[in-house]
Amino acid sequence: MKFYYNTGPNPAKVALFLEEAGLDYEVVPVDARTGGQHTPEFRAINPNGKLPAILDDDVRIFDSSAILLYLGRKTGKFYVPPENAAHAEMLSWMLFVASGIGPYSGQASHFLRDAPEPKDYALNRYTFEAERHWIIVEDQLAKGRYMLGETYSIVDMSLWGWGRFVQYLAGAEAWNDRFPNLKRLIEEIDARPAAARAKALAQKFQFKQEMDEDARRHLFPQNQRLTQP
C-alpha cells in the first residue's frame, strides 16, 4: 500500500489510522509547496490534486474521509459495520467532518494567515462557521468519551487531524474554556503511541518550509486570475 503524504491535517488522519491498525505501507511524500500535487503522476492517483491519497495494489482512493471509510471497512478496525445500528451515526459524523469541519476550518485558517486584505467579510464568515461546527462536536463529546459514545473510531481519527489546530483558530482561552471536551479528546489521542508515530512522519521527509511566491503559485493557483487583464 502506497500512502501519498504531506504534513497537512488531512494526511495526518490517515497516518493515524495506518499506525493504529498496524498496516504495512510505503510513504510517498508529495511536497505541495513545490507543486508535487500537480504532476501527471499524482493526478493519476488523485485527479483533484489534493493530499492524501492511497494506492492499495491497483485500487486508488482519494479524500481522507473516503480513505478512512475504505480502510475501516477493509480491516474491520475502528469501524462500525452496516449491520450495526450505529453505522448510520458513524457515516453521518464522517460526512459532517468532510463537508463542514475540514472545509470551514481550512478556509478560516487560510483567511487568518494567507489571504490579502480586504478580508473582513470572508474571515468573519469562515471563522464563524468553523466555530459553529466545533461547538456541535463539543456538544456531542459532552455525551460520551468519543464521538460514537465509548468506542474509539475513525470519526475520532478524522476529527484529530483538524482538532489539534482549534486552539490556533479559536485562541487558547476558547480551547481551554469553550471546548474542554474536544481538548480532552485531542489530548487523549495525542497520548496514544500510534499518534506519536503518525506525527513523527513529518520529521522523516524534507518538505519546503518557505511560503515564497513559488509556493503561493502552487498552493493558490486561483490567484493567477487576479493578475490577468
Question: Could you characterize what this model shows?
Answer:
This protein has 229 residues and is α+β, with helices and mostly antiparallel strands. It contains eleven helices and four strands, in the order E-H-E-H-E-E-H-H-H-H-H-H-H-H-H. The protein has helices spanning 9-21, 40-43, 64-75, 87-113, 120-141, 154-163, 166-170, 172-177, 180-190, 193-200, 213-219; strands spanning 2-5, 26-29, 53-56, 59-62. The protein has a four-stranded mixed beta sheet with strand order 2-1-3-4, with helices on one face. A hairpin with a 2-residue loop joins strand 3 and strand 4. The longest helix is centred in the middle third of the chain and has 27 residues, at 87-113. The mean pLDDT is 94.
